[in-house]
């Protein structure tokens, strides 16, 4: 199980996705932990069993147990926060933004890995989940921590690519099942 297996599973019409998947993995300027944590968190965010299995299997050899747990925690907490904060934003009544969320989020303060890595993974998952407020918040923290925009963009490219892999493989499975 691996990134290569995902690339091989993609149909011919998804050649660009295949090439992008190879590129985001092999040309990254992120640290190995940042890269593989982002890949794992994004895989979890897609909810695709195939993508989760393939990426988690390869990430297991590249991440510590703590980093793996933190990447999965980023996906879990953002599954909640992205819905909440996107909804508060979309309602359009700023009064909701002044109310306490009353949702436990202690993992954000103590993720078990470098805070910058965790913030990067939260940003990537927020891109998949489409929460503008969370994207703005995590990008601000990353920039204030000194992370260059180019590395933040890499996390967005990872999110976009992993999401496209999952969408393509799920669609292809559904299309071939109906034939």
From TrEMBL:
Alphabetical GO biological process terms: cell redox homeostasis; response to oxidative stress
S-S pairs: 131-134
Recorded catalytic activity of this chain's protein: N(6)-[(R)-dihydrolipoyl]-L-lysyl-[lipoyl-carrier protein] + a hydroperoxide = N(6)-[(R)-lipoyl]-L-lysyl-[lipoyl-carrier protein] + an alcohol + H2O
EC number: 1.11.1.28
Residue ranges of every copy of the Carboxymuconolactone decarboxylase-like domain listed in the record: 98-176
GO molecular function terms listed in the Swiss-Prot or TrEMBL record: disulfide oxidoreductase activity; hydroperoxide reductase activity; peroxiredoxin activity
Keyword tags: Antioxidant, Disulfide bond, Oxidoreductase, Peroxidase, Redox-active center
Pfam family, one: CMD
Calcium keyword on record: no
Active-site feature positions: 131 (proton donor), 134 (cysteine sulfenic acid (-soh) intermediate)
UniProt family annotation: Belongs to the AhpD family.
Quaternary organization: Homotrimer.
Function comment: Antioxidant protein with alkyl hydroperoxidase activity. Required for the reduction of the AhpC active site cysteine residues and for the regeneration of the AhpC enzyme activity.
Record protein name field: Alkyl hydroperoxide reductase AhpD
Organism of origin: Thermocatellispora tengchongensis
């Amino acid at each position: 199980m691996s990134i290569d297996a995902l690339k091989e599973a993609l149909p011919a019409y998804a050649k660009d996705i295949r090439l992008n998947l190879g590129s985001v993995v092999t040309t990254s300027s992120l640290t190995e932990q940042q890269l593989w944590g982002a890949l794992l968190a994004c895989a979890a965010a897609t909810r695709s069993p195939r993508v989760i299995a393939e990426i988690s299997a390869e990430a297991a050899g590249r991440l510590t147990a703590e980093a793996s747990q933190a990447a999965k925690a980023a996906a879990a907490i953002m599954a909640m926060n992205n819905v909440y904060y996107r909804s508060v934003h979309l309602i359009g009544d700023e009064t909701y933004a002044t109310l306490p969320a009353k949702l436990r989020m202690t993992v954000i303060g103590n993720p078990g890995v470098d805070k910058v890595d965790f913030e990067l993974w939260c940003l990537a998952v927020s891109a998949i989940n489409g929460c503008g407020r969370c994207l703005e918040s995590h990008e601000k923290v990353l920039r204030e921590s000194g992370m260059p925009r180019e590395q933040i963009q890499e996390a967005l490219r990872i999110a976009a690519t992993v999401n496209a892999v999952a969408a393509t493989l799920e669609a292809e499975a559904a299309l071939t099942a109906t034939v």
